[in-house]
Amino acid sequence: MYSSIFGGIVLDPMMMMIPIDDHMVHRGHGVFDTAIIFNGFLYELDAHLERFQRSASLAKISPPFSGSAFRSILIQLTEKSKCKNGTLRYWLSAGSGNFSLSPSDCPTPALYAIVIKHDMSQWKEGVKVITSSIPMKTPLFATMKNVNYLPNVLAQMEAEEKGAFASIWVDDEGYIAEGPNMNVAFVNQDTELVIPKFDKILAGCTENRLLELAPKLVEQGRLKAVKTAHISVEEAKAAAEMMFVGSSLPVAPIIMWDDKPIGNGKVGKLTLALSDLLWNDMAAGPETHRIRVTYE
């Protein structure tokens, strides 16, 4: 773990703590992001850091030092962890110093980061989802990756209580939004990849990368088009294929929604082809998207 309060990296789990008077803990005033560590490379770190900085600006928190310095710390932390497969998670808090509503008495914002080891494997099995009854966040908070995740937690719990993998949010205009901590994508009956617009939801770094990679399937004649659009529930449930897209997946096929099948109720070939694009990119993509970690 890295902590700007300690001013360094600690390897002892007993030291991996955040002060209870941290404004992120008792007021939820903080932002965060996550990058994948895959086969000794940090995947899409710069895209996640760009979003992290944008979230910090919206949350009115100024980092205690430059983004390039924090980027360097994150790479060093990954090196020290010796973890070659897992997640790198990091937070920016308004800081510690009091239990007030305002952070005005907090001397300085705080940065934290931690490496969590786990192995990833490509999803081959389909999952079931439900439509969430939990109100989704307003656009300001949905487009900012902040630590206020109670709606997300309740939406996930609701899905699990109903025997589903996760839930789907629908916005107040009846358009498909996102899952509790992942984006969604569809292949419609015209073999077009359609992704919900990011105007009211978090712009997923993995889904943005998929938008860059998916035209390869258009070139191969397997997809007709790749686009972002507002998608009604009726259009979504009539799709040929559906999937979750997110950093830790990166693609999970969805075969059942509210107890009704998506398409033929089986994992779609185009879903797996899109998944292959991301997995190949993680394993052997350009250096602009993969940072090699030098382990001691």
Give a short summary of the structure.
This protein has helices spanning 23-26, 45-58, 67-81, 139-142, 150-161, 205-213, 215-219, 233-237, 269-284, and strands at residues 2-3, 8-9, 30-38, 41-43, 85-93, 110-117, 127-131, 166-168, 183-187, 192-196, 225-229, 241-245, 251-257, 260-261, 290-292.
What does this structure look like?
- The protein has 296 residues and is an alpha+beta fold.
- It has 2 domains: 2-117, 2-Layer Sandwich (D-amino Acid Aminotransferase, Chain A, domain 1), CATH 3.30.470; 127-284, D-amino Acid Aminotransferase, subunit A, domain 2 (D-amino Acid Aminotransferase, Chain A, domain 2).
- The chain contains 9 helices and 15 strands.
- The protein has helices at 23-26, 45-58, 67-81, 139-142, 150-161, 205-213, 215-219, 233-237, 269-284; strands spanning 2-3, 8-9, 30-38, 41-43, 85-93, 110-117, 127-131, 166-168, 183-187, 192-196, 225-229, 241-245, 251-257, 260-261, 290-292.
- Strands 7, 8, 9, 10, 11, 12, 13 and 14 form an 8-stranded mixed β-sheet that branches. A 7-stranded antiparallel β-sheet has the order 2-1-6-5-3-4-15, with helices on both faces.
- Strand 13 and strand 14 form a beta hairpin.
- The chain starts with a strand and ends with a strand.
- The relative contact order is 0.15.
How are helices and strands ordered from N to C? Answer: EEHEEHHEEEHHEEEHHEHEEEHE
Name the beta content range: 15-25%
Mean pLDDT: 96
What is the count of DSSP helices, taking H or I runs of 4+ residues?
Answer: 9
CATH topology of the largest domain: D-amino Acid Aminotransferase, Chain A, domain 2
**Major beta-sheet overview:** 8 strands, mixed
Assign the CATH architecture of the largest domain.
Answer: Alpha-Beta Barrel
Segments where pLDDT lies below 50 for 5+ residues?
none
Spatial separation of the terminal alpha carbons: 17 Å
CATH class division of the largest domain: Alpha Beta
- Proportion of helical residues: 25-40%
Tell me the quaternary state: single chain
Shape by Cα distribution: globular
Domain count: the total is 2
Would you count the extended β strands for me? Answer: 15
The name of the CATH superfamily of the largest domain reads D-amino Acid Aminotransferase, subunit A, domain 2
Rg: 20 Å
- Class from secondary-structure proportions: alpha+beta
